[in-house]
Amino acid sequence: MCISELKGQNVPIKLWTDYNEVEYSALTQLKNIAALPWTFKHVAVMPDVHYGKGATVGSVIAMKNAVSPAAVGVDIGCGMAAVKTNLKADRLPDSLKEIRSQVERDIPVGFSGHSKEVFASLFKHGPNFTFWRDLFNEFKTLSEIVQKQYSKATQQVGTLGGGNHFIELCLDTNDTVWMMLHSGSRNIGKELAEYHIGIAKNLSHNVYLPDKELSVFLAKTKEMDSYRRDLFWAQRYAYLNRITMLELYKNALKRFLPDLEEVDRVVCHHNYVSEENYFGEDLVITRKGAISAKKDERGIIPGSMGAKSFIVKGLGNENSFCSASHGAGRKMSRSEAKRIFSEDDLAIQTKGIECRKDKAVIDEIPGAYKDIEQVMDYQKELVTIEYELRQVMCIKG
User: Fold this and answer.
1) CATH 3.90.1860.10 holds for 4-331+369-396
2) Would you list the domain boundaries of the chain?
3) 264 Cβ partners below 8 Å, 6+ apart?
4) CA dist 141 → 81, 152, 224, 226 (Å)
5) Are strands 166-172 and 176-183 parallel, antiparallel or unpaired?
6) Is 116 helix (H, G, I), strand (E, B) or coil?
7) How far apart are alpha carbons 307 and 55 in whole angstroms?
8) How far apart are CA 36 and CA 108, in angstroms?
9) Is 167 annotated to bind ligand?
10) Most buried residue among 1, 102, 125, 130 by CB atoms closer than 10 A?
């Protein structure tokens, strides 16, 4: 059962949170999604819900024979990766500053890329190499708008990006060391998304929508086929980016911890489109800030840079379209956070964590995010907690 339910023009809105805690702008977006003639059954809303560009962050949108490119947004395939290691906390040095500096040297952040492609040298053979080779062999089939970006796309594999993307070193409740990171499809995903969003807005069937940002492509059209090709390519690119960063991150750590080994790995998208079957129907599922939480499927739900994170297992709740939250969720905008909080506040809220504490990252301060404990409590029927993590080092884009 959901916690709250609102009436929508076409379908209801089921929320795994108290609707009184959802800001008006996000509720307006959700009502516009629920009014679309292609939206199926209901809109599922996760407890980290907040207003987003294009569509509401924390929304799961099921459509029949249609997809909205702005609903998934410009960071196609954005998601998480986490690795459990063989080391305990007592193996870490007293100061993690040198480790953070090494990781920042090895993994470009912000708009930066590598000076050359790094993937083939990291994975010289095996399934990861084959995945990389096949992906870039398909590059020439993508939309013409990105054809001049081949080199940039290869050089941004294994890079963090900006915004709320991060690389963290964490400890679980048994003091086991974990590697964790959050990133997406970089500039190539953004370019492909913006191109298709622009096309969708100019299609005749989208003229009278309540929100043109929710313009859709329809099944069995050349526009849908083109978007689907680019979309699924970008989602694979985002996965490649994460597993490449994991290897670079592991190599950086091994400079200081040479006996570090990987024990377990979890990788998941939380900004993506998938074709799935619910309630006996083949549907296009858009998870905008939500993870897949099918029965026993593992996922990652991070908190803010000063709060807990969780490795979870799905409970397969069909009413949520087998989904759960992708994180804590913002409770205030970036501009509001910068206006309210200071560098001193940031230092206090990230005490004990090796991370940047300057004004450029104040918008990522823990106080700008919802209480992750409350978020997890709201979705007890969606996931169970496998591991609870806390950060000891955080690198922001």
Assistant:
1) yes
2) 4-331+369-396
3) 83, 84
4) 28, 17, 15, 10
5) antiparallel
6) coil
7) 26
8) 40
9) yes
10) 102
> Catalytic site residue 326?
yes
- Say if residues 120 and 129 touch (Cβ distance below 8 Å): yes
Of 285, 262, 255, 281, which Cα lies nearest the Cα of 43?
285
H-state helical runs in the chain: 24-34, 69-72, 97-106, 119-122, 127-137, 150-155, 186-201, 222-254, 334-340, 343-349, 372-378
Name the β-bridge partners of 369.
Answer: 330
Check pLDDT > 90 for residue 306.
no
114, 196, 269, 326: the active-site residue: 326
Is residue 168 marked as binding?
A: yes
Asked if 230 and 236 touch (Cβ cutoff 8 Å), the reply is no
196 is in an annotated binding site: no
8 Å CB contact between 175 and 90? yes
Handedness of CA 8, 319, 369, 101 (dihedral sign): negative
Q: Is-contact 216 206, C-beta < 8 A? A: yes
**164 in a labelled binding site:** yes
166 is in an annotated binding site: yes
Per-residue model confidence (pLDDT) at position 163: 86
Instruction: Give the contacts of 20 (CB within 8 A, at least 6 positions apart).
Output: none
Structure-derived torsion over alpha carbons of residues 117, 119, 121, 123, reported in degrees to the nearest 10: -170
Look at phi and psi of residue 307 and say left if phi exceeds 0, alpha if psi is from -120 to 50, else beta.
beta
Signed CA dihedral, 166, 62, 231, 214: sign only: negative
Under 8 Å between Cβ of 341 and 311:
no
**Residues 102 and 255 sit within 8 Å (Cβ to Cβ):** yes
In the block, which residue shows the tokens 């516009």?
Answer: 32
* Whole-prediction pTM: 0.96
Q: Mean of the pLDDT values across residues 181-205?
A: 97
User: pLDDT grade, residue 149 (50/70/90)?
Assistant: very high
pLDDT for position 1: 82
What are the tokens at 297? 């499927």
Residue with tokens 């940031």: 346
At which residue do the structure tokens 């509001």 appear? Answer: 336
